[in-house]
């Protein structure tokens, strides 16, 4: 596809951050923009993807699910309609309540002559950047999706920028499984890095993962063990997930606690062998900041991977508790994170079993 006369006449020059696609009056990056330019014609350093499947992030999907559940009945048509409206209005998938989006799987359709991403037409890829900053057009009305799951069959297109990230999908894995893993691949990579920092100081840490039976949580438990944790504690909200995580064998101890109850979470982690030197928060509900801080030892580290986290609540909560803890925001990117997560999936039957069960 050749650039249209609209692009030829457009005075905006391409920027690797995607700034040229922002339609706001103010100079903001695509993630903060209210609307993006979704034209299919490419600037020289862009790549266009024919979308096969979206993966809505857990916090966003749960919020939509709660919003459109009345009298115990979920209205999938309303969830689908709202996703379509968000994308049509904003030119990207960014839930206005949670601020989060997800990622996608598709096939490379066109590559600009100056793209640095190393992709080739025909590559099947998973994007490793958020849908909150990815220009997106849905062309099938999400007709194959019932609004009942995070994974969304979709026909449409998306655009990647010069500083976007995408990984070619492995041939040996179901694309839906690959998408599920790549959606959360930043969590285990950063968990491993932090645990390795402790191990390098000859301090094998106790690691507690809140939401340990979930996607990012199960991978983070496997990563912590592989990186040298002395003890791993998986925290789950109810007995069913306790049994599931225990069967997977990913944690030395599995504790049951409501992560929104700070005292209950602190006590559960302590009883399981804590306080934790490293606490990893992977749950998709708000209000878990205080408990995570209380469950962490002095001079310990809390890693927040949930998009439901209030970072002001975390900062002010730690101050109010006089808690000397380091708090890290999991930004979803660590070099080599996708390959590392796939390595964990292939090498750990417990992780793979949990992922395949969720699919």
Automatic annotation (TrEMBL):
Residues 20-170 form the L-erythro-3,5-diaminohexanoate dehydrogenase N-terminal domain. InterPro entries: GroES-like_sf (IPR011032), KDD_N (IPR058932), NAD(P)-bd_dom_sf (IPR036291). Gene3D superfamilies: Medium-chain alcohol dehydrogenases, catalytic domain, NAD(P)-binding Rossmann-like Domain. Signal peptide: none annotated. It comes from the Bacteria. It holds the Pfam family KDD_N. This is L-erythro-3,5-diaminohexanoate dehydrogenase. It comes from Nocardioides pini. The lineage of its organism: Bacteria, Bacillati, Actinomycetota, Actinomycetes, Propionibacteriales.
């Amino acid at each position: 596809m050749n650039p249209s006369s609209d692009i030829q006449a457009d005075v905006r020059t391409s920027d690797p951050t995607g700034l040229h696609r922002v339609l706001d009056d103010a100079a903001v990056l695509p993630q903060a923009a209210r609307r993006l330019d979704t034209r299919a014609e490419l600037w020289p350093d862009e790549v266009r993807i024919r979308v096969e499947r979206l993966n809505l992030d857990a916090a966003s999907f749960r919020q939509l699910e709660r919003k459109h559940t009345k009298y115990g009945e979920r209205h999938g048509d309303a969830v689908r309609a709202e996703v379509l409206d968000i994308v049509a209005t904003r030119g990207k998938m960014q839930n206005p309540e949670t601020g989060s989006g997800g990622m996608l799987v598709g096939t490379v359709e066109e590559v600009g002559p100056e793209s640095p991403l190393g992709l080739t037409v025909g590559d099947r890829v998973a994007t490793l950047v958020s849908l909150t900053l990815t220009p997106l057009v849905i062309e099938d009305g999400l007709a194959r999706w019932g609004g009942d799951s995070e994974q969304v069959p979709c026909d449409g297109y998306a655009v990647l920028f010069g500083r976007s990230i995408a990984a070619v999908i492995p041939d040996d894995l179901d694309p839906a499984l690959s998408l599920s893993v790549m959606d959360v691949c930043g969590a285990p990579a950063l968990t491993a890095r932090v645990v390795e920092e402790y191990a390098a100081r000859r301090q094998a840490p106790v690691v507690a993962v809140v939401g340990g039976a979930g996607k990012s949580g199960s991978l983070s438990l496997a990563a912590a063990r592989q990186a040298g944790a002395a003890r791993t504690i998986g925290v789950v909200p109810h007995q069913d997930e306790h049994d599931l995580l225990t069967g997977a064998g990913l944690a030395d101890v599995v504790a049951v606690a409501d992560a929104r109850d700070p005292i209950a979470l602190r006590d559960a982690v302590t009883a399981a062998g804590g306080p934790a030197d490293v606490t990893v928060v992977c749950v998709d509900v708000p209000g878990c900041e205080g408990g995570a801080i209380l469950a962490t030892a002095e001079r310990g580290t809390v890693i927040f991977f949930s998009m439901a986290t209030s970072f002001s609540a975390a900062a002010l909560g730690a101050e109010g508790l006089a808690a000397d803890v380091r708090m890290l925001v999991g930004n979803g990117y660590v070099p080599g994170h996708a390959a590392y997560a796939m390595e964990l999936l292939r090498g750990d039957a417990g992780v793979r079993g949990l992922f395949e069960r969720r699919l």
